[in-house]
Amino acid sequence: MAALELEDGTIWYETSGEGPPLVFVHGGWMNGQAWQPQIEHFADDHRVVTLDVRGHGQTGATDRDRYSIDLFTDDLEALLAHLEIEQPILCGLSLGSMIVQQYLHRHPAAATGAILGGAVRSMPPVELPAGVKPFVSPMPALATTLSLTGPQATFRSMLYSIRATTGERWLSVDPDVRTAAMDAVGDVSRSEFRKIFGALYRFEPPALTGVDTPTLVIHGEQEAPLVKQQGARIATAVADGRHFIFDQSGHLVNQDRPQAFNEATRAFLSQLEAEPAG
Description:
The chain is α/β, with parallel strands linked by helices. The protein has 10 helices and 8 strands. Pfam families: Abhydrolase_1 (PF00561).
């Protein structure tokens, strides 16, 4: 991996292949390896970029006491500038989809395309009225649970609460994928887990009206119903959006159905190439 030195930390990233830039942003408490099925598939004809977002993976802890989706988006912009990438194709999973949405909000036509897997607009996926979130924040309870049980047990308890509305296999239908995800959570420290959760919880989703970037949203059928509704809303909000739901897959849809995800992505990329510039 390579390092991007910032004033308050180091962002670790990896590149492979040559061609149009395809930039992958992973989900919460994961790392760039969450995109391995896509890296292997697209590196033959794309410049594939993955990064470990602050608090995650090789990047780990940074000096900031508080994280936000805006800060993560700043980091993405810094990495694109560092790599001299213009008009990227951005791929975001879960938390990564929030980062990509914020990037599109800032730069409605600066990306060639966007692919959002397990896309979510807010956490919880019920968008609360402005000003309400601080008064119903789960952060104090989360801090207590983290101090007593650690990141993996805390994440597991979050999964149990989601199962009440989605069934047994929300995160993934594949035991190996679930195990790898839990291993990645175990690499995150208590303090970083809390900061990442805070960034997710505090995020106020942009409307995305005026975004011209063609956008593909993909969910698994085991995804939480409210999250799938949010995905449909994203696809409707942008000028050129489409929303797919794959069966036999959960939140980590790119790993549960890698072939279907890659085929849908490649078809989407082919459409982008066929469209006239400007």
